[in-house]
Structures are given as C-alpha cells and as structure tokens.
C-alpha cells in the first residue's frame, strides 16, 4: 500500500510540485476572474445585484457606437490608448537610453551598482507623493510658470503645464520609466561583448551595431518592460485623475465611478472588455519575441 | 432593562397632529425611563461607519468618559458608506449616513427603523428635519429633503412613510448649506449668482466636484440661474433634463471653462489656495482651511440659495441586545449638547440647537448661529484661530443660511442614466 503510494508520487512528482502555485492561482486569479465574467452578465438595481444572463451591461456600454460620432466607450478607450502610446514611447526611449548607458558606458562594476541604485532611489518614496509633487511645480502660480515669466519667455502663465495630457504623460513617464529600465538593463547585461566587437570588426557603424545587434538581443527586456507599462497605464485612474484634473477620460475611472455607484455588473463588463484588449496587446507583443525561450 | 411596552406597529391615530402629540408624550416618558443603561458586563465597542465629518477624536474621548462606550471609527468615502450599508451590513454597529443615501439603503432592508420613543430629545430636533421649515417658513424641498425620507411605516419597512411615524430612518447629527467658494482678491467684483460658475469671464478658472450626484446639482443650480432651463426638481431630473444639463456642461467643458474637477476636500483646498481656480463649488470647512492658510476666500451666499446636505445615525438590522442599548445611549448623548457644540464650532449645524447652545459660549453662539460680528477671536475645537474678532460668518445667521436652502443632495430616480451621462461628460 505504502509502496504503491510512493510509486504514484514519483510518477506525478512534477504535478505535485506545481500544485501549490496552481492552487494559489486558481483561488486568487482564475476564480475572481470567472466571478467577474459571471457578474458582468447580471442585472442590477440601485441597491442589489440580480443574478441573470443579460447583455444589458455590454449593450449599454456600446450604446450609440454604431453611429458616426464617437460613443463614450470608444472615446474613453481612444483617450486611454493615446495616453498609453505616448507613455510607452517615452518610457521606452528614456528607459532604453538609461539602461544602455549603465550597461555599456559605465566601466566599473561598482560604479554601475551605485548608479543603478540611484535610479531606484525615488522608488523608496510613495507613488502618490511622486505624482503630487509635480502639482506645485507646474501650476498656474507654480515654479515653472514663475521662472518662465521672470525670464520673460512668456507674459501670461502657461496653462497646459498642469491638468492636461502633458502633465499626465509627464507623471506616468516619471513613475514608470524604471519598469522599462530594469528588464532592458538585465537583457543588455547578458549580451556577449564579443558580438559587439565582431560587429565593429565587420565594419558596422555605431548605429548599425545598435539597431542590428543590441536592440534585437534586448527584445525580451523591451517586451517585458512594455508589458509592465501598458498594463499599468491601461488600468490607471489615480494618476490620470489627479494630473488630468479629473477632466480626462480613462477606462479605470469609468470602472471606479460605476463601482462607487454600486453598478458592479456594468463595472465587471467594462473590466472584461479592458482585460480582453490588454490581453490582446500582450499577445501581440509576445508574438514579437518568445519570452519563455529568452528567459 | 426594557420596561416600556413598545408597540411594533404603526400608530393608528387619525390625524398627523395627534400622532405627533402621542410621540411627544411617549418620548417624554421615555426620557425618564431610558436613563442609564447598565454597562457593567464589560466595555462596549461600537463600530462607527461613516464619512470622516463627525469622526473626531474629541468626540470619541468624550463618549468614553461620559458613557464608557468605545467608538471604533471606520472612516470611508460617502460612496463607500452606501456600498458597505448595502453589501456588508454586519461590518458596523452604527451608520453615519447622509439622507440621500437612504434611497439606496432602505430598499435593501439593511437598516431598521429607530424607535422615536427611545430618543430623549426627539421633540427638540430642529423643524428643518421634521417639518421642512425654519422659524415657521418652508424651506427648499427639491432633491432628497430629509423630511421625505425620515420615517418608515414600520420597523422593518423597505419604503418610506410620507407622514411622521414612530419609526425613524436616521437621527440627524450634522447638516449644512453649501454654496460656491470664491477668491475675492482675484475677482474684484461682487458675485451674487450661481450663473457665474459658467460665466466665460472665469474661463479656465472654475471647478465643480466630480461626484456625479452632487456635481450635477451644482450644475443645475448654475444652469437654472443663467436662465437656460427651469427644472421641476433639480434633485430628480427627467432623462431629458439630464441630457440638457450635460449638454450645457459639455459645451462649457469643451470651451475650457473648467480648470479641473475635484473629488475630495484637500483637492478643493489646493485648487483654491494655489490660484488654479477662483470660483468653484466648495464645502464650508474647506473655505475655512483656505482662509487659515492666509489666502482670502469667501463662502459666497448667492441669490438662488444653497444646496443643503444632512447626515444622521442609522441602525443596522443586525444590532441586538446590549449593543443596541448602547447605540441608543450614544445617540441620546450625541443630541445632548456637547457634540452639537463641537460641530457648531466648526461651522456645521447640530440637530438639537437648544442643548448645543447651552454648551457654547455666548460669543460663539452669536458668531456661528446668529451671524453677529465676533466679539473675540473665534477658535476651532483644537484651539486654532479661525476668525479674528469683528469678522462675520459668510451668509450670516442659521436662519438666513438654512432658510435659503434651494435643494438637497439627492439620488434621482434616473440615477443609472445620470451616472452614464456623467461619465460621458468626463470623457467629452
């Protein structure tokens, strides 16, 4: 009896080893997700959820979307996607540059560690504080406007510095660049330096080496960083709310408003659509590079 | 302990007047009988769920001292008060809710009626709540006026009674009249109408709150003042009216009228103090806060009147035994003066004025409630100077301010639709 049990265990060792994680994921990831999917089909009133199978939430979400003018949902998604794209471009450019500098330009290992830690230092403060600290800087009577006015560059305060798409993108880039820097840096450090020498020996210019050797080899880091940034920005409502003066639409904000008005099924439907979109984007990104192989 | 016979059915008196008379009689009797509940079996902890308005450590300490009851504050946003009351009625022992929330909470059956006979001071509660009038004059009734949602036909009812009964939904604790805050140093001319909120003169310097159910009422006040639409009830718009309101607001937003929308107290203070906005919807203590930072700010009375709100204590259906007794004791204590004075000193209003007056200095009462110039410096409960001697409260006396209420914070019948339209407005 005992022997047979031991035999079974040996045969299924891999399964048993994976079981704890699978259990945790099933309990805290798959189950809530299924619940959200189910609730998105429910009906609701002011004060209660009504178990049902109705398309009401999805129908109301896309109400008016067939006409030529943009409906709220499309407009909201467009606004969110636009912010996401801008933030992605900037974080990628800055994050890659910083990582490149750290990996290839800094000569000693000690210096590299010091500089890398310096990059992460701002993360010792709260996310919210780093975001809010931009407000006194960018405001109508803020530091930036005072400086511009005293230098005679502008005569009237510049209004678009704060509560605008500019300030939202600025705050996001500030908050999330490190999420690109770290994985890209990690990828760059794994590149065999002899490849760079070979490229130079073969007559490649600096830019050619960068484009044809470094960037392809840094792809896993770039993709991982991009996934971080896209997922964080698509689901955000705090930064967009605070830096955009609550005037810029975002999907996260819509969900939050619906939740606070007890419209859980509508929020669940909205969340399912957002999830599908973000998953689609991630699938597209992972098509570019086989992350599992690269890791 | 419970020696009174409390009839658990609606009193069947023929007229309103005699029913109220009965209530007065029984309430007075209850006052003598209800006195000290026994707390010998160990300290009682009451989990107190509500917005942070009333949840002050000063009140908590005084309750501990006077009643031996420990309050455990659970400060949440007003949206979360509703959400908790509807979805987790076991998570609190006493609910500090606003009257407009009742339209969502009562149908869920999670709050039960409070026995008026157990409330010592019931007959002394200001007529603003019981009759919708002040000093014999009717006040604005639009929206979810407390008078409309104060009574239940029976203890476990899920709908309201239009006439007074023995069963109360909430016992009022605190209320106020809201208006626009302005920066007089940046505007330099008198402001006397809600219409100014949409005046292009303040393009890029105006703000309203991004809490749909309250924001739309401020919008309606401004739109009605500008003569573009006359609402039958600003607190209960038809779909067509919601469309009109949001169309006008969207136009204004696209034209750049608003600098930002605010969602919480501190955001409104920062917008005003930093000069980002010069005119915006605001809460009274936020104006006080801006002023205490040395920035001139006025809580401007407007000719169309105020948008009022009111909060009160409610009982969850799960409450029984000693905790229920303790809750009644706490509520009676709250109306007995100390807490009222505490709230009045912050610029709010308390439900029973006579007891609060007894606990305030005459000069404080004159300033806060009678609208007279301050005879000496006016201090907050924590000792900071709020107003210098000689200053007058914006809007004047209690009667002048509460008497000029135009509408009450509300939940509309078309609330779902309104929230969708508001999301559209934010996205526009």
In words, what does this structure look like?
The complex is a heterodimer of chains A (295) and B (428). By secondary structure, chain A is mainly α. Chain A has a single domain, classed as MetI-like (MetI-like fold), CATH 1.10.3720.10. Chain A has 15 helices and two strands. A two-stranded antiparallel ribbon of chain A has the order 1-2. In chain A, helix 9 crosses helix 11 (206-235). The longest helix of chain A is centred in the first third of the chain and has 34 residues, at 72-105. Chain A is flat, with a radius of gyration of 24 Å. The relative contact order of chain A is 0.12. Chain B is an alpha/beta fold. Chain B has three domains: 16-176 and 308-357, 3-Layer(aba) Sandwich (D-Maltodextrin-Binding Protein, domain 2), CATH 3.40.190.10; 178-306 and 397-427, Periplasmic binding protein-like II (D-Maltodextrin-Binding Protein, domain 2); 362-387, no CATH class. In chain B, 37% of the residues lie in helices and 18% in strands. In chain B, the strands form four sheets. In chain B, strands 1, 2, 3, 4, 8, 11, 12, 13, 14, 15, 16 and 19 form a twelve-stranded mixed beta sheet that branches. In chain B, strands 5-10-9 form a three-stranded antiparallel beta sheet. In chain B, helix 8 (212-225) packs across helix 9 (239-254), helix 9 (239-254) runs parallel beside helix 17 (415-427) and helix 10 packs across helix 11. Chain B is globular. Mean pLDDT of chain B is 87; it is low at 1-39. Chain A binds chain B through residues 45-48, 60, 72, 75-76, 79, 135-136, 139-142, 159, 162-163, 241-242, 244-249, 253-254, 257-263, and chain B through 77, 79-80, 82-83, 86-87, 103-105, 107-108, 204, 210, 212, 253, 258-263, 267, 270, 274-276, 411, 415-416, 419-420, 422-424, 426-428.
Alpha-beta content class of chain A: mainly alpha
Instruction: Note the overall shape of chain B.
Output: globular
Q: Indicate the CATH topology of the largest domain in chain B.
A: D-Maltodextrin-Binding Protein, domain 2
Q: Which residue ranges of chain A are poorly predicted, with pLDDT under 50 across at least 5 consecutive positions?
A: none
Integer average pLDDT of chain A: 89
What is the CATH superfamily classification of the largest domain in chain B? Periplasmic binding protein-like II
Indicate the mean pLDDT of chain B. 87
Strand order across the largest sheet of chain A:
1-2
Number of strands of chain A: 2
Q: Roughly what fraction of the amino acids of chain A lie in strands?
A: under 5%
* Low-pLDDT sequence parts of chain B: 1-39
Report how far the terminal alpha carbons of chain B are from each other.
60 Å
State the oligomer.
Answer: heterodimer
Which range best describes the helical content of chain B: under 10%, 10-25%, 25-40%, 40-55%, 55-70% or over 70%? 25-40%
Given helix and strand content, the structural type of chain B is alpha/beta
Q: Classify the fold: give the CATH topology of chain A.
A: MetI-like fold
How many helical stretches of chain A?
15
Instruction: Give the number of domains of chain B.
Output: 3
Number of strands of chain B: 19
